[in-house]
Automatic annotation (TrEMBL):
<dbReference type="InterPro" id="IPR036291">
    <property type="entry name" value="NAD(P)-bd_dom_sf"/>
</dbReference>
<dbReference type="GO" id="GO:0016020">
    <property type="term" value="C:membrane"/>
</dbReference>
<protein>
    <submittedName>
        <fullName>3-oxoacyl-[acyl-carrier-protein] reductase FabG</fullName>
        <ecNumber>1.1.1.100</ecNumber>
    </submittedName>
</protein>
<dbReference type="Pfam" id="PF00106">
    <property type="entry name" value="adh_short"/>
</dbReference>
<feature type="domain" description="Ketoreductase">
    <location>
        <begin position="5"/>
        <end position="184"/>
    </location>
</feature>
<dbReference type="InterPro" id="IPR002347">
    <property type="entry name" value="SDR_fam"/>
</dbReference>
<keyword id="KW-0560">Oxidoreductase</keyword>
<comment type="similarity">
    <text>Belongs to the short-chain dehydrogenases/reductases (SDR) family.</text>
</comment>
<dbReference type="InterPro" id="IPR057326">
    <property type="entry name" value="KR_dom"/>
</dbReference>
<dbReference type="GO" id="GO:0004316">
    <property type="term" value="F:3-oxoacyl-[acyl-carrier-protein] reductase (NADPH) activity"/>
</dbReference>
């Protein structure tokens, strides 16, 4: 049964984003799959069937984000899933800072840019759900992972952005949370045990929280994690 809601998922042409889109589609949302590669986005949309659509979107490109906003219009749910891990196996003292810069550009500024484009409409309409796909590698409670320093710092910053947007949208009907799905078997982590489909359920749960649900929290299913 259709909920009448529209969800935009970034990085949805493959892996975890594609799995999240499939779960939200199955739960009755009209999903918009966004990704940089037009061909893979079209293939993912065709596999999913209606009501699903696709959009070419590069989160690092302001013009691309603006064009996507003009094409898609307001959405009810935004899943900021697009992300990269480019500095695995390095350390904070020797990592190439160009890799760190590129990681921050996608994982933090990209998610921030897309949120600026779509969240104001949610506030105006007095309802919305924003989910940032984060990681335990960026949690101070766990201890930041030094084996991928740029990635870890990007997820710490993403968690900080979550709390700021949650505070900014308080009492507007918009809930903003980060989800730590745990290590998930994608191109980024091919040896992880959890499947994208399993992790996607956790993200979908945060995307469909009830009106009295939490905001500004670090979630895994029904658990609130320490930052």
């Amino acid at each position: 049964m259709s909920t009448g809601r529209t969800a935009l998922i970034t990085g949805a042409n493959r892996g975890l984003g594609r799995a999240v889109a499939a779960v939200l589609h199955a739960r009755g949302l009209r999903v918009v799959l966004a990704g940089r590669d037009r061909t893979s986005v079209a293939e993912a949309v065709a596999e999913m069937g209606g009501p699903a659509s696709g959009c070419v979107l590069d989160v690092t490109d302001a013009a691309s984000v603006a064009a996507a906003r003009a094409l898609i219009g307001p959405v009810d749910v935004l899943v900021n899933n697009a992300g990269v891990l480019r500095d695995g196996g390095t350390d904070p003292l020797t990592v190439d800072l160009d890799l760190v810069r590129d990681t921050l550009a996608v994982n933090v500024l990209g998610s921030w840019r897309v949120s600026q484009a779509f969240v104001p409409d949610m506030v105006s309409r007095r309802w919305g759900r924003v989910v940032f796909v984060s990681s335990g590698t960026g949690s101070f409670a766990n201890g930041l992972f030094t084996g991928a320093p740029g990635y870890s710092v990007s997820k710490t910053a993403l968690n900080g952005l979550t709390t700021m947007l949650a505070a900014q949208t308080e009492n507007t009907g918009v809930l903003v949370n980060a989800v730590n799905p745990g290590p998930t078997r994608t191109r980024m982590m091919p040896r992880a045990e959890r499947t994208p489909e399993e992790a996607a359920e956790l993200i979908a749960d945060a995307a469909l929280l009830p009106d009295d649900g939490p905001s500004g929290r670090f979630l895994r299913g029904d658990r609130v994690l320490a930052w």
